[in-house]
Amino acid sequence: MDPKSQRVKLNDGHFIPALGFGTGAPPEVPKSEAVEVTKFAIEAGFRHIDSAYTYQNEEQVGQAIRSKIADGTVKREDIFYTSKVWSTFLRPELVRPALEKSLKDLQLDYVDLYIIHQPVALMPGETLFPTDENGKPMFDSVDLCRTWEALEKCKDAGLTKSIGVSNFNHKQLEKILNKPGLKYKPVCNQVECHPYLNQSKLLEFCKSHDIVLVAYGALGAQRTLQWVNPNLPFLLEDPVLSAIAKKHKQTPALVALRYQIQRGVVVLAKSYNKKRIKENIQVFDFELTLEDMKAIDGLNSNIRYYDFQQAVDHPEYPYSEEY
Q1: CATH assignment of the domain containing 202
Q2: How far apart are CA 313 and CA 320, in angstroms?
Q3: Residue numbering of the annotated binding site
Q4: Catalytic positions, written as ranges
Q5: Which residues fall in the annotated binding site for substrate?
């Protein structure tokens, strides 16, 4: 099946491709590589590209998108591009300048989706992760409802087509949904989601409010990442996933991606390996049975690879809630 036609309708009428290419790379990957792999991903058929200010690669990703438009592979409207407002820019007056900076780096006129990267506000400034002399994070206190209003203004100004959130729990979502004078609902909540953390309660909550759940970390996490707990089990070596993969003559990674697509979750596949990028697009070429889906549901064990422990003392730390 043509991956470009598998899209999910957002609550504002726009459409998001069900499979996205995640551009975030570990620090050891040179920035220049982002140009090459993003171009390759677009050639392979990816139309949904996910990045963020904090990945520090928007210049390269924008260059890749523009070169694929210039050579006729795609038109701008074929590409669905997501950026995120980082935690040091959550004060309402800093939101639009942050988006304008991303657009300047990308050299694009608009992004398709602009989301709050995570609810924990950090002190404004040049540093992405400001810390005090004891190495403790320097938190900021921001009313996320005011941040949301600033995102609504960015949508009205045409700088982004859609707006959403990331790493929010259901109470934080509720706060925005119940905000007096709400103009636009978040179209999505992008969260860590995979068979070991299947987010079924949050997914149910989001679906009931017509909010799309977007899954990052859908293949678990690479053991090398410094913020990932190395003692956690490696998802892609799971025996249940491996057995289902064998049965369908697919890889465990494709089974993990397919699982999300069949639950109505938009899924990001992150890889800087060309062979795997090509392989990930094949998620539309097979289907899991109801039994397969149930077996994968049974793997849920609330294992969170990206738990942002440094922020656990912040009042908006999202993971103290059950979902």
Answers
A1: 3.20.20.100
A2: 10
A3: 117
A4: 55
A5: 117
